[in-house]
Amino acid sequence: MTDLSPAQAYLPRHLRGSLEVALGDTPVVALLGPRQCGKSTLCRQCEPERHYVNLDDKDYLDLARTDPQGFVDNLPERVAIDEVQRAPELALAIKRSVDANRRPGRFLLTGSANLLQLPRLADSLAGRMECLSLHPLTVSEIRSSPGRFLEAFLAGNLVPDIPPSGAPRPSELPALIVAGGYPESIQRDPVRADRWRRNYVQSIVDRDIRDIAEVKDASDLTRLLAFLESRTAQLLNHSALSQALGHSRATIDRYLILLERLFLLRRLPAWHNNRSKRLVKAPKLHFVDSGLAATLGELDADQWNEERPRFGHLLESFVLQQLIAMADWMPRPPRFFHYRDRDNVEVDIVIESHRKIWGVEIKAAASVNRDDAKGLLKLAELAGDRFQSGIVFHGGQATFFLNEEARILAVPISKLWEL
Length: 419
Prior knowledge:
This protein is of the alpha/beta class. The protein is about 40% helix and about 15% strand. The chain has helices spanning about 15-25, 40-45, 60-65, 70-75, 90-100, 120-125, 140, 150-155, 175-180, 185, 190-210, 220-230, 240-245, 250-260, 275-280, 290-295, 310-330, 375-385, 415-419; strands spanning about 30, 50-55, 80, 105-110, 130-135, 235, 265-270, 285, 335-340, 345-355, 355-360, 385-395, 400-405, 410. β10 and β11 (about 355-360) form a beta hairpin. The longest helix is centred in the middle third of the chain and has 23 residues, at about 190-210. It starts with 15 loop residues before the first helix and ends with a helix.
């Protein structure tokens, strides 16, 4: 259990500033993210006086689907519509309303499915809507720290820091990985949190999938998620998935797209110095929330030592999620990739912004050495002048150079929320 009490369950979110800016100059703002990650709470924190309509309410949903224009015409001037993906029929009605009155901030939509991947909504509101991503809580949000690690890293502001000698602190990483970031789960004890996450996955598969696609047997998606837990942070292998689950590649890919749209999984594309070659490289598959993956894999924090390889993969997904959330708080978010060559030299995370390149390696061990920077040095060679710096995250306490000439630092994972 994390150090979050029920009274603190809905902490201020670092995305709030970006949401307020968007509402100040854009007629339709969509706040997208997994169900139960805090979207409605953030909207109410930002504008408590705004009128709210929740399409999980059957009466509202039926009206929105059967008479979308009448539904929109009778809404107040500034309205929030929760779970808008449940009624894609509203898109054209919102478009007509906005074209008649383009005052900023009129419609605040929330969606537990990625509207940008739902053509009826995305195409109708193109040029009228800004989408923002809200993620499960990061550790920096849970602990009310500024969450500026990524900005400091990209700006070149990380410096060596050797703490005073003393007894090493016990690692808090296992508990943080297993807890994940859903507000409803992190305030519970580990057993109750695990039960909540199991029910959460089942409710998503049983209900939300039907809002965005037709699936004959939802249990196939549950089986796929359970199978993928052991493959988080690994290359996506369609053939292996098809063989294991007894479905065609086309069916597997369709299921993966659905799970991505519902913010349960993400594909991390491959980086290559030649942009045209990125498209033929296999992506890595990551769970968005490490707590969900741990629950599906029946992993507890006290298994950290005996299940270290599995925790190593979960740790990679955990760190990636922290960084991507931080990126979405920035005015111009960078893009994220991974790198692997034919000799299996790899870099867990490649960050690109304005043609500049940074690299991130992630190690669960409390100590690292120069050999752990091998992949980053290869990336630096390929990127040339575009390479800015690299870090090797580790479970220890000291920040120090592994290769000063290449600007590669060893950095404690805890700096993600302590810096």
